[in-house]
Amino acid sequence: MSHILSVADLTRALKDVLEAEFPFVWVRGQVTNLARPGSGHLYFTLSDADAALSVVWFKGSQGRGGAAQAAQGGGEAIDPLTGEVLEPGRNLAAELADGQEVLVAGRVTVYPPRGSYQLVAELVQQSGVSDLALAFEALKRKLDAKGYFAEARKRPIPASPARVAVITAPQGAAVRDFLRLAGERGTGAQIRIHPSLVQGDSAPAQLAAQLDAVNAEAGGKGWAEVIVLIRGGGSLEDLWAYNTETVADAIFRSRLPVVTGVGHEPDVTIADYVADKRFSTPSAVATGLWPLRADLMQLVDGLEADLRRAFATRQEQREAQLAELRRALAWLSPAQRLERLHEAWRENTTRLLAAGGRMLGERGQRLAAATRELARSFGPEDVDARQAQVLALGERAGLAVELAAREAARRVEVLGARLAGLDPEGPLARGYSLVRVERTGRFLRSAAEVAPGDRLGVRTADGEVAAVVAPPALPVKKAGGGR
């Protein structure tokens, strides 16, 4: 049976999918079922002829844009979507009513208690005035058709990069948060700030120029491992520099991977779609590029433990091999061979003496039996005669035993002489010597094994003498110039 999900698990999974697929969308429709609870939030349904969508416009988002400035008596205010001047006192949240055609920008999510999806509004404008929104969607479709957003062209971001180029306003809160987190994470990185305007008419050209300049560093190879575009949050108009084709083209032609962290969580720009990696905020960029130092230290500790275990295992294997080689060398050494021959001589001597004793015992038993048999078979005279024969036989038997013993002793002497002949140092005592060539470490068996100048070690019975092979004597020319 497949895994059974709980209602909460399934709802959370759907919520994650919707929020990932629709982080920022524009929706046009008619306001119905408007509700104004005491919290100040607005709840309504956005509908058209074929469908309906629940919308929540939280109080904190209702103050975005020029409407809030106008409501606070700040004089002229600028609509964040169109750039038009709004008259003082205008507030769409207060004017919103059933039946109005509006354009809503926000993110799609799921409200778990009801199990329904809804649109969380960030901006609400009257329908027909969303020139920037229409321009955003038009550019998005154009660049998508050109392949700017294709996942296949996006490059991997290096893990824990050591050289980072940051393009942003040099004195903003975004860069301060980024630098603070970068200093607390990773193993340390070099960061170069490339200052640029981040909003206004001149911002797109400056951002594109800085992107090209970073790619042109170090003779076109690029100093940085990754380029970071960051800025703090703001209205759609504030972020519009990142929704231009100029910046999108610069990101697309960059040879270095580009990472963006523009605005707040719901803000998504054209630059985010083109970039190789998009993070929700400038702070999220720093946390995504570099791991926590505590995690790195734990990783190093784990690697150290693995190295120690591997070294201990390797050392045990080498020690076992060394012990095996020592046993093999001991079995092949001359001292061990002499010891084995001496042990064999002792065993043969013991066996020989035992065989002689058994033979004497058997002969004695046979003699006693014969004596008893003769005593029964013959009279006193024959007994005396037989006794004399027996004595003679006894003497002969004694001589035979003595001869056998002497033969055994002789064989022992022969074995001892053969054993002494096997002693490698025996010839040294008789005036011979062993010559070892230092160049090869081997004993000299032939004159062809040495060359003039080779150093020799001549071993005698009482020590070792060093020698050098002399060159062959030159032939002496005879007087008279003959050949």
Protein model, in words:
The protein is an alpha/beta fold. The protein folds into four domains: 7-129, OB fold (Dihydrolipoamide Acetyltransferase, E2P), CATH 2.40.50.140; 151-291, Cobalamin-binding domain (Rossmann fold, 3-Layer(aba) Sandwich); 334-424; 428-463, no CATH class. The protein has 13 helices and 16 strands. The strands form four sheets. The chain has a five-stranded mixed beta barrel. Strands 9-8-10-11-12 form a five-stranded parallel β-sheet, with helices on both faces. Helix 11 (334-377) runs antiparallel to helix 12. It is elongated. The termini are far apart. Mean pLDDT is 82; it is low at 65-89.
Short characterization:
With 483 residues, the chain is α/β, with parallel strands linked by helices.
Largest sheet: 5 strands, mixed, barrel
CATH class category of the largest domain = Alpha Beta
Distance between the termini: 109 Å
> Helicity range of the residues?
40-55%
Question: What is the third-level CATH name, the topology of the largest domain?
Answer: Rossmann fold
Radius of gyration: 54 Å
Helix count from the secondary structure assignment = 13
Give me the strand/helix succession.
Answer: HEEEHEEHEEHEHEHEHEHEHHHHHEEEE
pLDDT below 50 for ≥5 consecutive residues: which ranges?
A: 65-89
* CATH architectural group of the largest domain: 3-Layer(aba) Sandwich
Instruction: Tell how many strands the DSSP assignment holds.
Output: 16
What is the 3D shape?
A: elongated
| Overall tally of domains | 4
User: If strands are numbered along the chain, what order do they take across the biggest sheet?
Assistant: 1-2-3-7-6
Q: What number is the mean pLDDT?
A: 82
CATH H-level superfamily of the largest domain: Cobalamin-binding domain
Which structural category do the helix and sheet elements fall into? alpha/beta
Beta-strand level of the residues, as a percent range?
Answer: 15-25%
